[in-house]
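# step 3/5: fold
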Amino acid sequence: MASRLEHPAASYKKIFESVEELNEPLPAQVTGVVPSWLGGSLLRMGPGLFEVGDEPFRHMFDGQALVHKFDLKDGQVTYHRKFIRTDAYVRAMTENRIVITEFGTAAYPDPCKNIFSRFFTYFRGIEVTDNCLVNIYPVGEDFYAVTETNFITKVDPDSLQTLKKVDLCKYLSVNGLTAHPHTDADGTVYNIGNCFGKNMSLAYNIVKIPPAQKDDSDPLEKSQVVVQLPSSERLKPSYVHSFGMTDNYFVFVEQPVKINLLKFMAAWSFRGATYMDAFESNESMGVTEGGSGVWLLV
């Protein structure tokens, strides 16, 4: 499905073109030689749908999640892709409009509803997206497509079918995790996320998800917070993209890019703002020497 809209990305609209998913894998044209001993599958996530009906998504991080798969066997390569059936995707396809607000695209109430229904829609609270377009990684024997919210989506790595949506808040004291964890050689996954506690207290929690269990239980059920770092500002946590990890240390830098929680909640409730509208820079922290770093021995 080629994009027919005049996209707000203007001259950059080529990278915002939508694609159709494939019913079955296609043989890829190989330039050069793929060694016959090289075999396996490469899974990648990315945005694949940039408009719904006559409404365009306005940021690269908003296109609906598409999983890509390259299979290598006997010197040949096949390519497959499918959209992840997230709530954001399914509801958008059903209603033919953007239903859930994304990073840079605001969703608005259904125009077919009467004025009273539209008014009360603004006060239902924040509906967090599950559009898992950023990354895909293994947890135990399973694979999950992820973004930076508390929702991850289990995907069948063979058929690329969507299996189930998982809310990490049911297992961990976090309001979201990064899409870029670290994985130990034994399959243990480490990640970091923000935690909003009582009295608006803020912290960064480093979490541990164990490897595949001998009793075949879900590793997520045994996940835990291994260390908590307090935020330097009570109402403005830093945006966390990733963190460092060595054999002996976690390395975390509190960045000057901040999320203003008051602006986030007020703007969202009254004028349909996006995640991006709550971002601001604390220039007093600088970029390198002004930031606060934490090294933790484990």
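# step 4/5: annotate
The longest strand covers residues 40-49.
# step 5/5: archive (pending)
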